[in-house]
């Protein structure tokens, strides 16, 4: 464990259970736009408020939107989520388009899991350095460009006959034997 984890709280991933299976529940509960009416660094925020805020509010009726004008302070977006997390983002000197992208990110994520050391239920003292196994791990690279079926990579002719095929062959052989004896 590195020293960076000493001051972080320990937590499991708190994903909303089955969110999106029946219906999707937006995890953003409240968003606060803090800005200055005259500061040049708040220009992008003021443009967002003038052009897109009403449409954002109409599209997301479950999100409470607050505007908080502040004198001589940098623009900030604060998002509060259903799980109690608060995200704070300074949008100092950001353009209108960048603020639209940040607001969309706030709307689609579920909170802040970066301030906690993520724990997992399984643990090993010797983690694998080889990576996860897949069915294609030890396959021959020639298989990517080969025209299949190819005898080099195996064909269906080598498979043993199934029980049904064996019975069919025995029945046909029996019929042939009966025809030969009848002649």
Automatic annotation (TrEMBL):
Record has Ribonucleoprotein as a keyword: yes
Claim: Ribonucleoprotein is one of the keywords in the record: yes
GO cellular component, one term: mitochondrial large ribosomal subunit
Signal peptide start and end residues: none
Boundaries of every Ribosomal protein/NADH dehydrogenase domain copy: 37-110
Transmembrane segments: none
Xref: SUPFAM superfamilies: Thioredoxin-like
Location of this chain's protein in the cell: Mitochondrion
Keywords of this entry: Mitochondrion, Ribonucleoprotein, Ribosomal protein
Molecular function in Gene Ontology: structural constituent of ribosome
Superkingdom classification of source: Eukaryota
Gene Ontology biological process terms, A to Z: mitochondrial translation
A Pfam family of this chain: L51_S25_CI-B8
Stored PANTHER family: 39S RIBOSOMAL PROTEIN L43, LARGE RIBOSOMAL SUBUNIT PROTEIN ML43
Family to which this protein belongs: Belongs to the mitochondrion-specific ribosomal protein mL43 family.
UniProt-recorded name of the protein: Large ribosomal subunit protein mL43
Source species of the chain: Bombyx mori
């Amino acid at each position: 464990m590195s020293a960076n984890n000493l001051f972080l709280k320990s937590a499991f991933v708190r994903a909303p259970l089955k969110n999106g299976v029946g219906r999707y529940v937006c995890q953003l509960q409240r968003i606060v736009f803090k800005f200055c009416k005259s500061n040049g660094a708040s220009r992008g925020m003021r443009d967002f408020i003038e052009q897109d805020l009403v449409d954002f509010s109409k599209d997301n009726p479950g999100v409470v939107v607050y505007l908080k004008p502040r004198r001589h302070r940098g623009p900030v977006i604060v998002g509060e989520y259903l799980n109690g997390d608060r995200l704070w983002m300074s949008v100092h000197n950001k353009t209108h388009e960048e603020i639209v992208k940040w607001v969309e990110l706030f709307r689609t994520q579920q909170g802040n899991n970066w301030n906690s050391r993520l724990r997992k239920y399984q643990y090993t003292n010797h983690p694998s350095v080889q990576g996860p196994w897949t069915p294609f791990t030890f396959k021959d690279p020639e298989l990517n460009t080969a025209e299949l079926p190819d005898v080099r990579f195996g064909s269906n002719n080598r498979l043993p006959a199934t029980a049904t095929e064996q019975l069919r062959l025995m029945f046909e052989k029996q019929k042939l034997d009966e025809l030969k004896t009848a002649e």
